[in-house]
Structures are given as structure tokens and as C-alpha cells.
Amino acid sequence: MTAAESPFPQHQLMRDAQHAAIHLELRDVYTVDADEDYPAWLEGWRPDPDEERWRSGFYGIIGEATERGVNVRRLRVVSEPVTDYIRYEYDLTFANIAIGEEVRWLPRRDAVGLLLPAVDFWIFDASTVMLTHWDGNGRADDPFRDISQDTELIKTYTDAFDALWARATPHEDYVPR
Questions:
Q1: pTM of the predicted protein model
Q2: 71-82: b or e for each residue (b if 16 or more CB lie within 10 Å)?
Q3: 12 in helix, strand or coil?
Q4: 47-72 pLDDT, tens per residue?
Q5: Side-chain-side CA neighbours of residue 63 (13 Å)
Q6: Distance CA 15, CA 140 (A)
Q7: Are 134 and 121 a contacting pair, CB within 8 Å?
Q8: How far apart are CA 157 and CA 167, in angstroms?
Q9: Cβ contacts of 138 within 8 Å, gap of 6 or more
Q10: Residue 14, SS3?
Q11: Nearest to residue 9, comparing CAs of 175, 115, 147, 152?
């Protein structure tokens, strides 16, 4: 099965990555009705960093990539004041950091003058882009993912990511408001 045919193509693309993976997240809410931890978080549950699940699944795949030297960067562009969902993501970001990702946050108002891509994406080794599509309520749209090796699109999105990244705040310095 190819990455494009997999229900989770980013898993295989991350396994195949040799140098770099960048991920841009633009939404203020994602699939809250499919995330069993989010309602518990709203009720006061907080994640235990020692739980194995923070080192398995896609976290484990990313951790394996960073261990073999892949530079993985995630950038979250957020509205402020942040939504409850973004506070939830912020509380879970310790897991991304623990597996070797670099994570930065960029309030939308600080992106003025920069061009934002229309959709979230992953770019692997500057050669493959995976676009993810969401509806207005943060649910997966149909088709949910598009994978391309379009070099112009990859360059455009990489340039946009790099400009946004330069303005963004590292996770350890960002305080959601």
C-alpha cells in the first residue's frame, strides 16, 4: 500500500523521511467529537507525561524519525484569545517536545504581512506535500488528504512556513492567552 492509499499516509511518509518534515496547523479546533481525551480534559483531566501512549502511535513514528536525525518542526497558527481546544493542544505539546519535535506558536495577528496557505500541510524532505482538508467545524473534509510532489507548491508552502516560523514563538516561551 502506498502512502497515498493508506488511511494515515503521514505515518509512512514520516517513516520514509530522511532529513526534514514540517507541519503547519492553521485551525483553532480539530475533530473534537472524535477525540476521547478532549471532553475529559474539559472536565479537568490532565495528561500524565509518563504514560506510554505519548511514545507510541504517531508519536512513536515521529520519535523514531527524530532519533535517526530527521528535523521535525510543527507550527501552530492560532487565534487569540485561544480556544479551549488550543489550550488542550498546548497541554499535550509536552509529548511532541519529548519525542524531538520543535514546536512553535504564532498568533494570527503576528502573521500580518505574511501569506498563509489555505490548508494545513506536511512536507517531507522537501519532495512530498500532504495537504489536509477540514470543514468549518474542524472535521475531516472529503477528500481529507491530497498528496503531491508538485515542486512549485512545495516551494511556495516551504517559503511560507519558513517566514511564519521566523516570527513564531518556541513552545517553551509561548503563553496562550
A1: 0.93
A2: ebbbbbbbeeeb
A3: helix
A4: 999 999 999 999 999 999 999 999 99
A5: 15
A6: 23
A7: no
A8: 16
A9: 27, 28, 29, 30, 31, 32, 85
A10: helix
A11: 147
